Known about the structure:
The chain is mainly alpha-helical. The chain is built from three helices and two strands; from the N terminus they run H-H-E-E-H.
Amino acid sequence: MTYSSFTKVFKQLKTKPAKLAKYKKHNTPTKTYGALKRKCTRCGTVRAHIRKYDINLCRRCFRDIAKDLGFKKYG
Length: 75
């Protein structure tokens, strides 16, 4: 569908709130799974994500604040 057809549909459904709610429910692009759903809490990137211990940081942010979190570097 093109942009104009979406606006046309919304104009038609404004008078019918129940049908508009159903249309929005089934046609909104919400994603509740997958790698893109998980983001770094500090910088927002979705790549190189560490979820262990419920850290939810990317590897770069983790290296910056690992000492503050109580992790030690061995080796």
